[in-house]
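Q: I have 171 residues here and want to know how they pack in 3D. Can you give me a structure?
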Amino acid sequence: MDAALVRQARAGSQAAFARLVAIHEKPLRGFLRKSGWTEADDIAQEAFVAAWAGLPRLREDEGFRAWLYGVAWKKALSQRRGAQRAAARDEAWRGEQELEAAAEVGAEDRMALEKALATLPEDQRACVTLCLGQGWSHAEVSDALGLPLGTVKSHVTRGRERLLSVLGGSQ
């Protein structure tokens, strides 16, 4: 049944595609929910939009259901990656704000910050100083120090955590 509707949808029939949506919408949303995606309705909607646009790339009309579920799964993974990146950016911003606030206080606190920085390994200290102290991007630090981008990000995250724990414990 799907194959005939897919052929009609490929020919431009919106009614045929609407019928495919009606057939697969509830099972697709159920699959996404059971797979743990809280935004299952939004993901399914995005998958159907992508499927309509991507029908010319579907290899076999009979494989529509599997292809559609694959599109939805990729949309779900992409959404999660985007949420993780946003959360990491937010966390980095909060950490930078905390370090900036710590750096703006008196000479005693500056000395404590310098002492805490001295406890970090050399590469980590350089990454933290450039990213958080000088406002460089992770990519700029990676290029300047010749370190892989992931290493720079790890150094900044671990260094910030270490500094906050040292500075938090000394007050």
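Q: Anything worth noting?
A: The mean pLDDT is 87. The longest helix spans residues 64-103.
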